[in-house]
Automatic annotation (TrEMBL):
Superkingdom of the source species: Bacteria
Domain annotation EAL: ranges: 24-280
Organism this protein belongs to: Deinococcus hopiensis KR-140
Name this protein carries in UniProt: Diguanylate cyclase (GGDEF) domain-containing protein
Length: 287
């Protein structure tokens, strides 16, 4: 492709490629250091039960406070982390950190109910030999209740590793850990796997929620996913709620849980106790 653009284009392409490669190598070295040197952060986005309006849990979302480049979002470094395999370490770090954090909040706010923790887990874990060991290792080390943990994986994971994934997910499920399918509706789903694998929750992708009131197709898709989930006895989370009208429509459709900027953006850990105190005023003022 570069060649077709002629000599000058070819040259520029090469220089760009070189710069890109150099940047990448630096970022990779940086990322190796980041997990060790405390540059990663976790934000916590509340997930609300539609029926009660109360927080039932949080999704842990990683950030990287880079000493030179500033605050980096997953879009800036997750691909790199996956390509280099560093994602295994990043995800494990996030999991450990979030397990400890949730327990701190539960101690701080003894009147509040216990919360679920949703953690994103890259598909890379499922081609690594020790996903079960590393998961149970973190749970043991932090004494976090396995049934309060939800692992968010994407549809692709179920398809890519179809020969071994059933057994792996089964063992994880036996630990008590729940499984969520993230970005549901965007993958090449074969709906059959929802029955063959021990899935607990579907998270409807933000892109459908975005368009659900404007596009009849998206609206219908959201409705269909919720109905199907009910029939299969799965829970449904709608992600990316930004408008009150979306919330109302999801209420009409009997969606179980919602998550999005309308309810709350991802929060710094220091902001969570106040958020929870507002959410559970009675429990906490008595406690
Ligand atoms: P996701 O798991 O689907 O997470 C939801 C993303 O949507 C988050 O972006 C969140 O900040 C954003 N979001 C939430 N509510 C709204 C809303 O109302 N409107 C809009 N426009 N966006 C909203 P974030 O934090 O940038 O993360 C992006 C993706 O990076 C995540 O998508 C997840 O796939 C991945 N990711 C994040 N943290 C981790 C991690 O610790 N490990 C791994 N493997 N992946 C992670
Ligand atoms: Mg997620
Ligand atoms: Mg998602
Ligand atoms: Mg995603």
């Amino acid at each position: 492709r570069a060649k077709a653009q002629g000599g000058a284009g070819h040259q520029m392409f090469t220089v760009e490629m070189r710069e890109h490669a150099v940047r990448r190598i630096h970022l990779e070295q940086d990322l190796r250091r980041a997990a060790v040197q405390d540059e990663l952060r976790v934000l916590y986005q509340p997930i609300m039960a539609l029926a009660t309006g109360q927080t039932v849990g949080f999704e842990a979302l990683v950030r990287w406070q880079h000493p030179v480049h500033g605050l980096l979002y997953p879009a800036d470094f997750i691909d790199l982390a996956e390509e280099t395999g560093l994602i295994l370490e990043v995800d494990r770090w996030v999991l450990r950190e979030a397990c400890k954090q949730l327990q701190r909040w539960e101690k701080l706010l003894p009147g509040a109910p216990s919360f679920n923790l949703s953690v994103n887990f890259s598909g890379r874990h499922f081609s690594a030999p020790d996903v079960y060991a590393s998961l149970s290792g973190v749970l043991n080390e932090t004494s976090f209740a396995p049934h309060a943990l939800k692992l968010e994986i994407t549809e692709g994971v179920l398809l890519q590793h179809s020969h071994t994934i059933g057994e792996t997910l089964g063992r994880i499920r036996e630990l008590g850990v729940q499984l969520s399918i993230d970005d549901f509706g965007t993958g090449y789903s074969s709906l059959g796997y929802l029955q063959s694998y021990p899935v607990d929750t579907l998270k409807i992708d933000r892109s459908f929620i975005d368009r659900m009131l404007q596009s009849e197709e998206s609206g219908e898709l959201v409705r269909t996913i919720i109905t199907m989930a009910k029939n299969l006895k799965l829970r449904v989370v709608a992600e990316g709620i930004e408008e009150p009208a979306q919330l109302e429509q999801l209420r009409t459709l009997n969606c179980d849980y919602v998550q999005g900027y309308l309810i709350s953006p991802p929060l710094e850990p220091a902001a969570v106790p106040d958020y929870l105190r507002r959410d559970f005023p009675l429990h906490l003022s008595q406690g």
